[in-house]
Specification:
- The protein is α+β, with helices and mostly antiparallel strands and about 350 residues long.
- The protein folds into two domains: about 10-160, no CATH class; about 165-340, Histidine kinase-like ATPase, C-terminal domain (Heat Shock Protein 90), CATH 3.30.565.
- Helices cover about 60% and strands about 10% of the residues.
- The chain has nine helices and seven strands.
- The strands form two sheets. A five-stranded mixed beta sheet has the order 2-4-5-7-6, with helices on one face.
- Strand 6 and strand 7 (about 330-335) form a beta hairpin.
- The longest helix has about 55 residues, at about 110-160.
- The two termini are about 25 Å apart.
Length: about 350
């Protein structure tokens, strides 16, 4: 990422030199003196001093660019600038007639001392400004580099989590298919055909960091068709979401994984139907809630689903996934990602 300089040359000098010359003129102007003549004299001095200092600063900045060499750069710059300013001041003063050519008896007189003092102030202002800008740009560049490294690490971790999605879904779907093969071969064929369509959908969207809630709900509806083939009236999924909310974003396949977990861990029968409610609360969270009727025999679980969802949302949203379990219900609240907080990731 390119760092924009704090001060842009040559505009800094084009504006700064005449402004500084005017300030110096006002400070040292005696009553009765010609302000225009004084201004142009100061303008000449400051132009020579400022530009010379600028190129000296640039020279040593290229020689010692790293922050570790800051002291060496500043010490070298100050030493050369002091020599340059003494020589430049004497040359310009001589050209303006302040000193006689070849005569050095006035080199340390009051006039020269005043000029040196004024030029020293100018140099201090110019040097401090450029050095502060340089250090700030170095600091900003370092912070950006650190942030980019963090983002690369987060993206790598997120890719690992995303790559868990397809195996997780396929593993559970194949378990269902095995059950169908034994119980109802005809339904096994239909299930396989629909599964291929749904799995193709997963492959198309699993690499997205976020997708519209509308897209996720469409997939859940398709996935529910597979579930209804097996559980018929034993599974009741109700969705109540306003159209405007459907334009917000969620992590892909998260709602499907929550439905899948509820089906996997709870008893489902016509006499004891599993009811899932999918709705939005306060326009900020998508709620997936099911009545709790856990299977008596523990279900073997890798706990990939909920852990995956929680970890993915730590990268995608400042809000956490809330998981609430009571005696009667199990509920998960997924943060809805607003456009204003949308990460710079791929969407659909």
């Amino acid at each position: 990422m390119k760092i924009q300089p704090l001060f842009r040359d040559p505009w800094t000098r084009i504006i700064g030199i005449p402004v500084t010359a005017m300030i110096m003129t006002i400070i040292v102007l005696d009553p009765g003196e010609n302000i225009v003549k004084e201004f142009f004299e100061h303008l000449l001095f400051i132009t020579v001093i400022w530009n010379g200092d600028y190129y000296i600063i640039r020279r040593f900045r290229r020689m010692y660019p790293e922050l570790i060499n800051t002291f060496k750069r500043i010490a070298s710059t100050i030493s050369v600038i002091l020599v340059y300013n003494l020589v430049a001041d004497y040359v310009v003063s001589t050209l303006l007639g302040f000193y006689e050519v070849g005569r050095f008896r006035n080199f340390f007189d009051d006039e020269f001392g005043l000029n040196i003092s004024m030029n020293f102030i100018t140099t201090l202002i110019v040097g401090s400004m450029y050095e502060a800008a340089h250090l700030f740009e170095k600091w900003k560049k370092k912070n950006i580099e650190v942030e980019e490294m963090k983002n690369q690490q987060l993206r790598s971790e997120l890719n690992v989590l995303k790559n868990q999605i397809s195996p997780h879904f396929l593993f559970n779907s194949l378990n269902t298919l095995v059950t169908f093969i034994h119980e109802n071969p005809d339904n096994a064929v239909k299930f396989t055909e629909k599964l291929s369509q749904v799995y193709r959908y997963i492959l198309e969207h699993k690499d997205k960091e976020i997708i519209k809630l509308k897209t996720e709900i469409e997939f859940v509806i398709a996935y529910n068709f597979l579930l209804s083939m097996r559980y018929e009236k034993g599974l009741d999924i109700t969705m109540s979401i306003e159209d405007s909310i459907l334009e917000k974003y969620v992590a892909p396949l998260t709602v499907q994984m929550l439905v899948e977990n509820a089906v996997k861990h709870n008893v489902i029968s016509i006499s004891r139907p599993l009811k899932l409610d999918i709705y939005v609360e306060n326009g900020k969270s998508l709620i997936v809630r099911n009545n709790l009727q856990r299977k008596r025999q523990g279900v073997k679980s890798t706990k990939t689903g909920l852990k995956n969802i929680k970890q993915r949302y730590t990268y995608l949203s400042e809000r956490e996934v809330d998981i609430i379990e009571t005696r009667d219900f199990f509920m998960v609240a997924l943060p809805l990602i607003e456009i204003s907080e949308e990460p710079q990731f791929d969407t659909v």
